């Protein structure tokens, strides 16, 4: 059932932005059917299952077969060991690790003095749990966990959260503006070529469904609020 829900969420977030066919091992995989559905194709390569191809799109990882004519929802597990291994999750984690680097210079950074880890957090100033995290941010910094904020307006690219995020990222002091917004203080007007839509699209690609969502250096994503002690434990286990 969880896999069916995941597949439905992918189709519900389609965006029209066609590209040309993807190159695959010196031959062309026909991506026209995916493009007709609104997927933007970023990469294609053979999966660990013969005849099945791993496709990274603007909405994350999907699988296709039969020369691009069949779309398969779900995840691939290696069940040869004592415990199933989610091979698809390893692909997704690599995708997140790579993509986070592309927006690193757009993040609002709270850096730990003795930095041991960097955690990227998708945030919305109207989210109560995001405010709770921000109020307690020193507890993360004191454990060597730097917090890099990206924007993910829960109501989409509209509404008060979206407008506040635009103002925050256009402010001269973004950190102060973020703190003010999460404390219900009025923000001075500011406008610029902001990255909010880009961050929102990236969050959707990563599988963000609410805020806060934390992306660890391993590429693992933790949905929801996790206190500093539990987050440090998760970071240590993910190494």
TrEMBL record:
Domain Thioredoxin-like fold positions: 112-235
PROSITE patterns: PROKAR_LIPOPROTEIN, THIOREDOXIN_1
GO CC terms, sorted: periplasmic space
Any one Pfam family match given in the protein's UniProt record, by short name: Thioredoxin_2
Source species, domain of life: Bacteria
Main location: periplasm
CDD domains: DsbA_DsbC_DsbG
Localisation: Periplasm
Stretches assigned to the Disulphide bond isomerase DsbC/G N-terminal domain: 34-88
Keyword field: Disulfide bond, Periplasm, Redox-active center, Signal
InterPro entries reported for this sequence: DiS-bond_Isoase_DsbC/G, DiS-bond_isomerase_DsbC/G_N, DiS-bond_isomerase_DsbC/G_N_sf, Thiol:disulfide_interchange, Thioredoxin-like_fold, Thioredoxin-like_sf, Thioredoxin_CS
UniProt keyword Ribonucleoprotein, yes or no: no
Signal peptide as annotated in the record: 1-22
Stated family: Belongs to the thioredoxin family. DsbC subfamily.
Functional summary from the UniProt entry: Required for disulfide bond formation in some periplasmic proteins. Acts by transferring its disulfide bond to other proteins and is reduced in the process.
Name of the protein in question: Thiol:disulfide interchange protein
Organism whose genome encodes this protein: Pseudidiomarina atlantica
């Amino acid at each position: 059932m969880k896999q069916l829900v995941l597949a439905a969420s992918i189709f519900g977030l389609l965006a029209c932005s066609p590209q040309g066919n993807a190159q695959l091992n010196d031959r062309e995989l026909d991506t026209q059917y995916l493009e007709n559905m609104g997927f933007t194709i970023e990469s294609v390569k053979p999966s660990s299952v013969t005849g099945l191809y791993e496709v990274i799109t603007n909405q994350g990882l999907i699988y296709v077969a039969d020369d691009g004519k069949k779309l398969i929802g779900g995840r691939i597990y290696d069940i040869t060991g004592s415990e199933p291994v989610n091979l698809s999750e390893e692909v997704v984690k690599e995708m997140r690790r790579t993509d986070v680097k592309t927006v690193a210079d757009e993040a609002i950074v709270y850096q730990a003095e003795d930095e041991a880890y960097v955690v990227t957090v998708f945030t919305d100033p109207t989210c109560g749990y995001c405010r709770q995290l921000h109020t307690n941010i020193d507890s993360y910094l004191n454990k060597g966990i730097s917090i890099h904020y990206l924007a993910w307006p829960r109501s989409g690219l509209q509404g008060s959260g979206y407008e506040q995020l635009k103002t925050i990222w256009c402010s001269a002091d973004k950190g102060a503006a973020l703190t003010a917004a999460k404390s219900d203080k009025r923000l001075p007007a500011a406008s610029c070529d902001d990255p909010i839509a880009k961050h929102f699209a990236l969050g959707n690609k990563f599988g963000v469904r609410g805020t806060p969502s934390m992306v660890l250096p391993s590429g693992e994503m933790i949905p929801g609020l996790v206190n500093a002690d539990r987050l440090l434990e998760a970071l240590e286990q993910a190494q």
